[in-house]
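Let's sit down with a protein and look at its sequence and fold side by side. Go ahead whenever you are ready, and we will take it from there.
>
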Amino acid sequence: MKSCWVIYNGSLISDKFADQARLVAEAAERAGVRAEVRKNYEVMMDLQRGIGSKPSFVVFLDKDILLATWLKASGIPVFNDPEVIETCDNKAKQYIRLAAEGIPMPRTVIAPKVYPAFSIAETGYFERVLADFGLPMIIKEGHGSFGAKVYLIETEEAFFEKVESLRGVDFVFQEFIASSRGRDIRVNTVGGRIVAAMYRHSETDFRANITNGGVAEPIELTENQQHLALEAARAVGAEFAGVDLLFGQDGPLVCEVNAAAHIRNIYNVTGINVADAMIEYILEKLP
């Protein structure tokens, strides 16, 4: 009998992270796999003693890259692969990969590394960015989930205040897609196919995330939207992905790809449990 661990971050107090893990574990049990939900700190990374009794595979719903890497190095199949999780966890790194594959997305400039104790405020760099992008624009920190750490910048004062506050942080400047203000599409893909999709919209925020007050409904994707979602997941190497699409004036654009996308909301909206497709895919792939 196959077994699996479903790992999430135990330091996060919101039940939605444990709920995500339970959804996947229940899907595994339905498929005849013995499943165990574990917090990341419940797996001791003892490099000398090793892991002991190994599961057949791990579904990794966390961003603890070191733990995922250690599990993979211990010979356990990990989904998604640690390199994919790391790429998607840093938006700047992710956008480099998407751009290299020619994926349509908002125009993006990655900010240079600036150490916290120093500043490039007097170099003219930020003035060049302002002149190039104009306002409003989006500033995104490299690490952030559920729409957090994404800022709509509408004044020069706010721009200079924000860039100075982000010294020591990876972040990007990005074109603001006004035609998609407060609305986007979440597409969940598994193993190169689309499993579920929902349209999200907000009347109160420029972001459409449900966490920030957005609401959602099922959507039938166009061929362009389907193709772009699958290509974006492929570009970052994600076997499981939550791809967020924007409504560009000339067609869909990729906002970002999530390697550990939450599936409860899309389950509630569409009635499709993405976890079942995830487990089915893993079992087909394993020897």
